[in-house]
Each structure stands twice: as C-alpha cells, then as structure tokens.
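Thread amino acids onto this structure.
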C-alpha cells in the first residue's frame, strides 16, 4: 500500500547530488517511442504543477502517434485523485504522494495505483518585484499564511507573531494580498506540511490548513498575475511557473534553519532549498489491459525523450538512480 509520507526530499537529494549531474546520460532502456501503431485515447487529470510536464510529453507522443487522442487537465492533485479512484481517468498527475484515505478509496474500487516519480520541484514563494523583503523563515511564512493570521491585512501586521517565532520583525507597511492554491491542490498540502505543520502543532493550532481569509485560485497563472500586478502580493507556486514568470515577480529566498536559499534546480539537487518535493504520475493498472494506449504512453514518458520534458519546462530532473527506480517499478507492474 502506498502511504502518505513526510516531505523529506531535500535531505534525500543531498545524498544524491553526486549522481544528479549524470541524470541526462541514461541510455533510455526504460521506455520506447510508443511506435506508430498506437491508437485510442487517454484521459489524464490532477496536479496543475505536473500538468506542463505531462502536456509536453503528450505533445511529443502524439507527434509520433497521431492516432492517439490525449486530454490533460489540471484541476489539482486532490481532485485528480478523486477522478482516478473512481476509475474516470487513466493516469493521475500529482504534486504530492497519494494519502491513505485516497488509497483506500482507490482500493474500494479495485484500483491499486502504480506510483511513478517523474521530477523534483521547488515550491516558490512569490511576491511583487518591488517588495523589499528578500528572505523569509518558516516562522515568517506561518505569520503571514498560517491559521493565526486571519485578519492580518498589512504585511507589518505580522511583525509581532513573526518576531515571536524568530522571524522577521520589519515587514513593509503595505497591504497584504494573498492569492494561493486551495485544498484541492497538492501544492497547498505540501506547503503546509513542510513549512507550517510543526509550528502549528507546537502552538495548538490546526496543522492542516492555512488562514481562511485569502483568495483561493487553482490556476497558477492567476497566482502569478497577482504577484506581478499587486504591490503587496503574496503566493506560492511550483518552480516552473516562477521561472517562466521571469522578472515580473520576486521569488523570496527561504531560510529553513540553515540560512537563506533561493529556489532553483541547483539548490534542489544539492539539498539546500528547504521547500522541495517530488512530483509523480499514478497509473491505473486496470487501464493497462483495457486501454492499448496506456502502456506505450507511460513507456514513452519514462524514456529519455519523454522524461526530458520535466527539465524542458523548468522542473528538476531526477538523478539516475531515482529515474531507474521509477522505470523498474513500471517494468515490474507491467511484467
């Protein structure tokens, strides 16, 4: 059974940094180009963070297999798992691991998800390019986003709580406008788990929710637009969206206890960026025999050409051994 686990990717990738540089040298025996005999359709839904990777993989696959119709949607990881566990999709994109309740829902419908790690990500906390803040601690993030921050409408209204938590005590005097993912998003869940959970638990606060009075958007581009166009904006997105926004937004450095570190591929690989996570696809094994397009598509996804899509859309490629683990898991599932 796949179980939800703590986000510990930063520590893991630190140990893998020596092999990360070789991640583009794999000989690609984990997949094929899908062949030109593949026909049918694929329904893929889930994480808006993973959607750009899967969309590019789908584009490449269809260029070689024009007889396959592929729909890729990104309503959020949780919404995607609901569709997946109901048997409505073939593959589910996910920016967090499936949790125990979702596994149980899948199993109730005879589905045992095949989990395949496809990339790493750096959660990027973003704001307006003019914001004078350069770095934030977990205490700062809690004081702005957390369950005790309801009614904090100005950045400097969070000074007292941030100071109490060992963070910033000189936030700027500008209105605070938060646009960020909601509960349907795996990004929401992993952000809370990494940055908020321990602080909230120690303070006797809910450890599974952000403040209730912010603007929720499942569209990462709306979060980017808020950050680019609003002086006091604040939000968080996957690394790809932050990089592609360029200089229109500021990505804050984060201090997880070891100093301020910027979100970047290099800092995920070397294990220093504290808000890092894995990205996944999940495959419904029942669909492998029912839908002749599923296996060739996943074969291609895990091939050198397919998996390169993650880096091409500005996510962090898996080191060799992690990629081989995904390929081996897929090979075992389809043996």
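Threaded sequence (335 positions):
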């Amino acid at each position: 059974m796949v179980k939800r686990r703590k986000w510990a990717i930063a520590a893991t990738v630190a140990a893998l940094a020596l092999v990360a540089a070789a991640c583009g040298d794999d000989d690609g025996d984990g997949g094929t180009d899908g062949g030109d005999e593949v026909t049918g359709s694929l329904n893929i839904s889930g994480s808006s963070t993973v959607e750009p990777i899967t969309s590019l993989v789908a584009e490449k696959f269809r260029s070689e297999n024009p007889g396959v119709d592929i729909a890729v949607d990104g309503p959020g990881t949780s919404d995607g798992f609901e569709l997946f566990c109901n048997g409505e999709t073939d593959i589910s994109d996910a920016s967090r691991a499936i949790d125990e309740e979702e596994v149980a829902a899948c199993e109730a419908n005879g589905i045992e998800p095949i989990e395949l790690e496809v990339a790493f990500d750096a959660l990027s906390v973003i704001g307006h390019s003019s914001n004078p803040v350069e770095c934030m601690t977990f205490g700062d993030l809690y004081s702005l986003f957390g369950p005790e921050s309801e009614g904090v409408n100005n950045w400097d209204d969070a000074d007292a709580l941030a100071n109490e938590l060992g963070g910033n005590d000189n936030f700027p005097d500008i209105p605070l406008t938060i646009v960020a993912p909601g509960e349907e998003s795996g990004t929401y869940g992993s952000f809370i788990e990494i940055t908020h959970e321990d602080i909230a638990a120690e303070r006797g606060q809910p450890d599974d929710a952000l403040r209730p009075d912010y603007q929720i958007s499942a569209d990462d581009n709306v979060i980017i637009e808020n950050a680019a166009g609003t002086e006091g904006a604040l939000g968080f997105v996957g690394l790809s969206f932050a990089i592609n926004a360029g200089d229109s937004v500021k990505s804050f450095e984060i201090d997880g206890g070891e100093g301020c570190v910027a979100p970047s591929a290099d800092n995920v690989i070397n294990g220093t960026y504290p808000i890092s996570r894995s990205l996944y696809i999940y495959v419904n094994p029942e669909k492998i025999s029912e839908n002749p397009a599923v296996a060739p598509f996943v074969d291609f996804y895990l091939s050198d050409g397919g998996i390169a899509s993650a880096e091409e859309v500005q996510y962090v490629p898996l080191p060799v051994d992690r990629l081989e683990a995904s390929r081996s898991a897929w090979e075992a599932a389809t043996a």
